[in-house]
Amino acid sequence: MTALLRLEKICFGYPGGRTILDGAGLELGAGERLCVKGPNGSGKSTLLRIMVGLLHPFSGSVWAFGAERRTEDDFHAVRCRAGLVFQEPDDQLFCPTVREDIAFGPLNLGKSRQEAEAVVEEVLEGLALTHLASRITHKLSGGEKRLVTLATVLAMKPDVLLLDEPTNALDEENEARLTEILLSLPLAMVVVSHDPAFRARMATRSLALKEGRLVEASA
């Protein structure tokens, strides 16, 4: 089976710092929920950004949906099919209202305003967030922002979800709700998480990032 996403021998370091990825590789198959763990600063978030071309490795290759990806045009196509949910919702939510934030992605993909509104309603209803549609985004609670951020990505109709610490700062109720939603989605996922209980519920397979490389691990 062809992997949806594949990283091969990825090496990366930030300017003036040490190399944090040193030959890292992974494959994500259809229907997999691949969880990645590792110490703070080990490069987990960096891996997700490399997958969608927000960062570029020193060496190694990124394959997505059957093709090697190198140029910005290549990665634009990837970002239309692989949705990244950032660790901090405020890094992703920038429109005045929830409805506008969710509509932004479909409009950017070329949908008409009417088509985008239909997607917004579908996603809001599916996530039981209709009551938030007209709310001012920056006034939402942390848990509400997290769910709205997921909604903005699902509105793009992705084939793959990339989630960076999705339970960060969530209370028990919102974490349980988020987990239920994610488990109900028929999407392949790469989930970066420091939470072992969450990983145990989510993972079909787990990797650990150690000394710049990914190795098979328990949840």
Give a topology summary:
Elements lengths: L4 E9 L5 E10 L4 E5 L6 H8 L7 E6 L2 E3 L2 H8 L2 E4 L12 H11 L4 H14 L15 H13 L5 E5 L7 H13 L3 E5 L3 H7 L2 E6 L2 E5 L2
Helix pairs in contact: 3-4, 3-5
Compact summary:
This protein is an alpha/beta fold and 219 residues long. It folds into two domains: 1-81 and 159-170 and 185-219, P-loop containing nucleotide triphosphate hydrolases (Rossmann fold), CATH 3.40.50; 88-157, no CATH class. Helices cover 34% and strands 26% of the residues.
Straight-line N-to-C gap? 24 Å
Unreliably modeled segments: none
List the total number of helices: 7
SSE run: EEEHEEHEHHHEHEHEE
Number of strands: 10
Describe this structure in words.
The longest helix has 14 residues, at 113-126. A six-stranded mixed beta sheet has the order 6-7-8-3-9-10, with helices on both faces. It has two domains: 1-81 and 159-170 and 185-219, P-loop containing nucleotide triphosphate hydrolases (Rossmann fold, 3-Layer(aba) Sandwich), CATH 3.40.50.300; 88-157, no CATH class. Helix 3 packs across helix 4 (113-126) and helix 3 (98-108) packs parallel to helix 5. It is of the alpha/beta class and 219 residues long. Helix 6 links the parallel strand 7 and strand 8. The relative contact order is 0.20. It has seven helices and ten strands.
Protein traits:
7 helices; 219 residues; Rossmann fold; 2 domains; 34% helix; globular
